[in-house]
Amino acid sequence: MLRSAILILSGNAATSALLLARNLVLARLIPVADYGVAATFAMVMAVLEMASTLELHQQIVQSPRGEDPKFQAALQGFQVLRGVVTAAALVLLAGPIAQFMQIPQASPAYRWLALVPLMNALQHFDIHRAQRHGRYLPVLLTGTIPAFGALLALWPLARIFGDWHTALWAMLIYTALGLITSHLMAERRYRLRLDLAEMRGAMQFGAPLLINAAMMFLVFQGDKVIVGRLSGMEALAIYAMGVTLTLTPTLIGAKTIQNFFLPKLSAARATAEPALFRDLSAATFEAALLTGTVLMVGVFVLGSPVIALLLGEKYAALTGLFIPFAILQALRVAKTGPNVVALAAGQSSNGLWGNLPRVLVLPLSYLVLRETGSFLYVIWLGTAAEAVGFALTLWRLRQVMQPPPVWGALLTALIALAVTASATHLIGPVAQSPKSTVLIALVLLALQFLSMRGLRHVFSGRLT
């Protein structure tokens, strides 16, 4: 198990590191306001993916019929139909979107972006089917190779354009390479079927996930839309960069946790092994909590130097927001544990409930930002909402099973959160005492490690 986990983690980390490097290099190469415009491209793609998400590729992994070629062809056909509709919608809505974001000059770029959902929909699902057999390399390479290619393309693109067009074409190159790689990694011939019965089944499975995707858009992009509308493109660039730097590590952890544990949890449930399912559930919870703790401790130790080194003076305003952003994302990633376990148990609505508080707080965030002009209050409001959301995911999980006993891991994660939250008020003294900061970080990580009994059992070979 440890070898598979290391492969998944390293692959996801490599892809995310390359995408993060692309964002950082892009921020260096173009003006701050242009990076804000580039951030709207990601927001637009997120809303389109949200509007059509059914997690069809996850059905290949989760469904007992995942090996059936006809089932795969039907899901691929449905995916292409979804991509065509999404692309057409973006072509029609490009102008209104640009007007809403107050950047009418970007409307042609939004039309070009219609190619992204279309190319994504044409990817081969074999890369996901391989995960059923513990083969993760195809899906990992389909992320890593495109990310590396897009990063290499930045310099020539910046020399040609020198503005937000650089981000547009880098995004198109990334998507095209992903499409090509998925087909090169496939074992089966690519087939498409349009089957109304399979579509209905996919819709039934995906309907809660579709609603959750709408929630996820509002969670990940709602604050950015508010900031862009009220504070302009430069402010959006600062806020989006803070989200990117703290969200990327948690996405690595969350994706690794789902890729590694979901097939094993599903198999344990399918073979009626309740003890194994319970122990794997505990390890899944602990892995999510560990991801959040590592992020908070890392920002606690390295936050300010990282901003200065990677972004320079253009993004100096981000320094005071870095730890609050990290705490927010740590609470968000903690929900991955109950969400993955619930999905393996057949409950696909768990994530929806966990995201509901974050959505409900958005109007208050709008009012607070309009009245104060401060991002900090918006971040702390989101943090409180994520804490409530975590509690809701546990409550929903109890509808289908008893949550695993992970109180020790939860307590040590809360201690790490309390220490890093306090650091936001002591950032001057902390910055002057790096040895104390490193010592505190090591103690926090040691406490977290000692509390993770389930995860240690997974990697020691006691769980198979």
UniProtKB/TrEMBL annotation:
Coiled coil feature spans: none
Q: Do the record's keywords include Chaperone? A: no
Q: Name one Pfam family in it.
A: Polysacc_synt_3
Q: Which domain of life is it from?
A: Bacteria
Chief site of localization = membrane
The entry's cellular-component GO terms read: plasma membrane
Protein keywords: Cell membrane, Membrane, Transmembrane, Transmembrane helix
Membrane topology for this entry? Answer: Multi-pass membrane protein
What residue intervals traverse the membrane? Answer: 77-97, 137-158, 164-184, 205-223, 235-254, 287-309, 375-395, 407-431, 437-455
Q: Where in the cell is it found?
A: Cell membrane
Q: Which InterPro entries match?
A: Poly_Biosynth_Transport (IPR050833)
The question of whether Nucleotidyltransferase is a record keyword is answered with: no
Q: Which PANTHER family match?
A: LIPOPOLYSACCHARIDE BIOSYNTHESIS PROTEIN WZXC, PST FAMILY PREDICTED COLANIC ACID TRANSPORTER
Family per record: Belongs to the polysaccharide synthase family.
Q: What is this protein called?
A: Polysaccharide biosynthesis protein
